[in-house]
Amino acid sequence: MHKFKLKNTIGREELAIANKIIKSGKLSGFKAEWPNGFYGGKYVKKFEDYLKKFYGVKYAITVNSWTSGLIAIMGSLDIEPGDEVIVSPWTMSATAMCILHFNAIPIFADISKEDYCLDPISVKKNMTKKTKAIITVDIFGGPSKVEEIKKVIKNNKIKIISDSAQSPYAIYKKKIVGTNSDIGGFSLNVHKHINTGEGGIIVTNNKSLANRCMLIRNHAETVIANMSIKKINNLIGYNFRMCELEAGIGLEQYKKLKKILFNRNRYIKKLVEKLENLNGLILPKINNILDHNFYILPIQIDDTKVNISRKKIWNELKKMGLVGIVEGYQNIHLLKIFKKRIAYGSRGFPLNISWQKYKKGICPVAEKLHDKTFLTLELCLFDINLKDINFIENCFKNVWLKLKI
Ligand SMILES: *Cc1c(COP(=O)(O)O)cnc(C)c1O
């Protein structure tokens, strides 16, 4: 039986810095006051300085999770209750939930079957006078079409937000994803490529959005008088502050990130090249090694060429001992919260005013992929090596032979 090695990116360097921080006794430097302590402790500032350079942005803001980051970003926009935010149904639920926190309405646009990210044409179709922002998700480690979305919406008042949680360093048209929109960010939770246990990063070049995110991160209402903040809408603050330990560990993790991605991608690129030779399998196109970060390997069965059900193929792959292979993904627009329109309280607030019918049929591409043709290989769980790649290739080859595909 083939054994995959579970990944662990935490090593000596992280242990050393954690030791130092613990010995200092200062596990957080944040205070909900201005000016001292408002921007956090020594390691939070150090980590943010590092991230600014790493991503080539004016502002990098750490938070205690990327979910918190998304909520802060929503508040940083001038959202009014009832405004609409277009979002992808193929994402982790937090991407859609952050919209509800400011009583705005998530409107789902469909995805493209080529990259599983928002389809610019569907975005355009779902725009109304109330559209305030669009959240694109660089899902599975691959880039979304930010430039194309900008082009079709033809409205620079509508802000574009990148949820790049799964793509810490994917290059698209010479830009790092997450930095190619108005504001974006990354997750540092334990499942991602690198992690601090829990944590998130917001990146932007927009001063006003950055300042508002930092206010929401740290109990805005307590400092707006001393800071002479005039625009106070949506500045009901939270505690989204990162601890010194996470910041220190994050610093070490980021020093390793490129190496981790290059090492993994070398193998995964090989795997993709091998699997492409099988009849009826559609895989991401990779020209350069960082085109995709492969949080998971998205695989599509081309049903114009293969007439055996996904379930059967999946079952056979499982029987071969292939772990981490999953049927379909998820369709956030079909969660009960939307279907029943129950969010705050029990009477439909605020989803009752949505024109969108949260039911099957509104995102046909996403739905068909989930129901019939999409398979994921959860590569991010493992420390992948050449033997693993050969094993995965053999599993697919043998199943293709057995089922005469
Ligand atoms: C992980 C993830 C999030 C949430 O990030 P947390 O740091 O766990 O809060 C949001 N969106 C996507 C696409 C994710 O993969």
Brief overview, please?
The chain is of the alpha/beta class. It contains 12 helices and 13 strands. Strands 1-9-8-5-4-2-3 form a 7-stranded mixed beta sheet. Strands 10-11-13-12 form a 4-stranded antiparallel beta sheet. Strands 6-7 form a two-stranded antiparallel sheet.
Describe the 3D structure.
The protein contains twelve helices and 13 strands. It is an alpha/beta fold and 405 residues long. A seven-stranded mixed sheet has the order 1-9-8-5-4-2-3. Strands 10-11-13-12 form a four-stranded antiparallel sheet. Helix 6 links the parallel strand 4 and strand 5. Helix 1 packs antiparallel against helix 8, helix 2 (42-55) packs parallel to helix 8 (244-275) and helix 3 crosses helix 7. The longest helix is centred in the middle third of the chain and has 32 residues, at 244-275. Residues 65-67, 91-92, 94-95, 137, 163, 165-166, 187, 189, 200 line the site of pyridoxal-5'-phosphate (PLP).
Which key features would you list for this structure?
binds pyridoxal-5'-phosphate, 13 strands, 405 residues, 12 helices, 7-stranded mixed beta sheet, single chain
